[in-house]
Amino acid sequence: MAASSATPPQTPAGRRFSVGPSVGLLPFLAYLTVFLLIPTITVLVGAFQDDQGGFSLQKVGKLNDETPLLVLRESLLLSISSAAVGALLGALLAYLIVTAPSTSVLRRVVTAVCGVLAQFGGVTLAFAWIATLGFGGLLTQVLADTIGTDPNGISQLYELPGLVLVYTYFQIPLMVIVFLPALEGLRPQWREAAINLGATTWQYWTQVAFPLLRPAFLGSMLLLFANAFAAYATAAALVSQGSPILPLLIRNSLTSEIVLGEQNFAYALALEMVVVVAVVMALYAWLLKRTSRWLS
Amino acid sequence: MTGTIVWRVLRWLLLLVFAAFFAVPLLALLNFSTRDTITKQRTGAAWQALTQDPAMTDAITTSLLLALFTVIGMVVLLVPTMIWVRLRVPAATRLIEFLCLLPLTIPALVIVVGLTNVYAWVNYLIGDSALTLAFVYVVLVLPYAYRAIDSSLSSLDATTLAEAARSLGAGWFTVITRVILPNLWPGVLGAAFIAVALVLGEFTISSLSHYNTLPVVIVQISKADAPESMAAALASLLFAAVLLLALSFLDRSRRTPGGN
Questions:
Q1: Could you tell me which of A209, A211, A176 has the C-alpha nearest to residue A97?
Q2: Domain range for residue A28?
Q3: Mean pLDDT, rounded, of chain B
Q4: 3-state secondary structure A135-162
């Protein structure tokens, strides 16, 4: 106390750095600038440049063409439907396991499997479904015999309905992971309080639990949407020709060397993707704040 | 009373349906990888090829080395920075958190589109090798690594530890490497596990930069030898599963001694 009051304006004795401790953050900031910020800024700027480097709205304007619009629509459709199905079924599965004690084998197995499938599937999941419904797949013959599909493999697997099915396969696990904490936050005391006040189970769910869970549910659904919208590996492994969704159209314009100027169009498409994902993630962060007010 | 019985039966039925939905594609993968495409007989040839096919072994080596370099890069870059922020620059906490979580909002696909210029320099300075992917992979694993290390760091009274070490004459380097880091071990290990699993499965950046990592080769081989690629796909998924399961046990053993 005496020492600090004796020399208040000076830096504390024994400190060796005069430039300030913030310098210690420079390596980290420099690294992120090079490998995260510069690529992002390259995309943002590149989308508004013409081939000579001047300002131009030509590429962004091309997003209004028929193909990019159609692809964007398909991508939104895929993301919305797989997020909706994934969120509903994932919330159901989360509820089925949250009623088991947290140390139970069931719960541990389900969360571990969900962790693997939600984050590390990628290429593997595409192959798993090809092995199930593709040529010579496990269920292909069974389905051909019972409901009369093509015995040489179900061709819809490589189109939008198939993508929704395969995406659901990693969306449900992701929903379980992000929604489980919210379900765990529902205190048993609230249910007891509601029942003490004379509520039925139905009334408890519709008037207490659902309103409490709604922000968490919508937030998780937004996260699932962003996850599906930006996913690339599964679709790329599944669909080798054509580009029915936005990530594959980006692949197409990155790798195409036939049409000149097509390669730079990837900047505009990537800009479109980052704008959609950023808006959705901002909404997600906002909903998360509302959730944490009650369920922490 | 009948209500609870109906609910119990219904609960198990629903769980069975979910189990079937998730198990069938994986079983199909196993089935496909252990069967000859023409004779339809059981064979382990595809699984054997994983260790014999040079393209496959090269890819596995590349991916494992990439995982190693990514983990090293992540630890060297992130851990000292996070400790430093906690001890000396708490005002930057929000900034660092924001930057670490940013890769969740910027899809890998967008990063790869803008990466050409940066990698032109990297290849010019270091050379053209698949292993240079480790630089950008460090960025990809940041959000997951940050969370793992942050939870470990929060459960620690880092300031007191640092003050104690400093009053005994330790320099900042000693404080970080020999006082704080040993206490962060579980968090760092968790971050490393997740990083390894992510790198082994990463396809977006490696395929679009034309480097032959494991997932890229799996897709290439699928056109010529489907069973082998299915075997490799299943093997990498199982490897990731083992890593994550080990992580969950690590997590549990960390919590039990604290009694909380």
A1: A176
A2: 22-56
A3: 87
A4: CCCCCHHHHHHHHCCCCCCCHHHHCHHH
Is B99–A36 a contact, with Cβ atoms under 8 angstroms apart? Answer: yes
- What's the gap in Å between the CA of A54 and the closest CA on chain B? 18
Residue A4 counted as domain residue: no
pLDDT at A148: 73
Give the number of other CB atoms < 10 A from CB of residue B149. 24
Indicate the number of domains in chain A.
2
CA-based max dimension of chain B? 75
State the pLDDT confidence band at A4, using cuts at 50, 70 and 90.
very low
- Reference A79, options A266, A239, A269, A226; nearest CA is A226
Q: Indicate whether this model's pTM tops 0.90.
A: no
Distance (Å) of CA A68 to CA A59, A265, A279: 11, 10, 19
Identify whether residues A211 and A101 lie together within a single domain: yes
Domain harbouring B179, CATH code = 1.10.3720.10
pLDDT of res. B139: 95
Query: What are the chain B neighbours of A277 within 8 Å (beta carbons)?
Result: 105-107
Residues of chain B found within 8 Å of residue A43, distances taken between Cβ atoms: 110, 113-114
Whether chain A has a CB inside 8 Å of the CB on B138: the answer is: yes
Q: Is the pLDDT of residue B63 over 60?
A: yes
A242: left (phi over 0), alpha (psi -120 to 50) or beta: left
Clarify whether residues A71 and A215 are in a common domain: yes
Q: How far apart are the first and last CA of chain A?
A: 40
Query: Would you call B29 and A232 a contact, using CB atoms and an 8 Å cutoff?
Result: no
- Closest chain A residue to the Cα of B203, Cα to Cα: A233
| CB contact (8 A) between residue B81 and residue A38 | no
- Give the C-alpha separation, B159 to B186, whole Å: 19
Question: Which of A131, A232, A250 minimises the CB distance to B32?
Answer: A131
pLDDT of residue A136: 77
Asked if the interface predicted TM-score (ipTM) of this complex is over 0.90, the answer is no
Residues of B in contact with A237 (CB under 8 A): 203, 219, 222
pLDDT digits (tens, 9 = 90+) for B90-114: 888 999 999 999 998 899 999 998 8
- Across the interface, whether the CB atoms of B104 and A233 are under 8 A apart is answered no
DSSP alpha helix (H) spans, chain A: 2-6, 26-32, 38-46, 58-62, 66-98, 105-120, 123-133, 140-147, 160-184, 188-196, 201-204, 210-230, 233-238, 246-255, 262-294
pLDDT tens-digit map of A169-206 = 999 999 999 898 888 888 888 888 888 898 888 888 88
Q: Please say whether the beta carbons of B213 and B130 come within 8 A.
A: yes
Residue A18: which pLDDT band, with cuts at 50, 70 and 90? Answer: very low
Decide if A283 touches B, using CB distance below 8 A.
Answer: no
Instruction: Note whether residue B23 is domain-resident.
Output: no
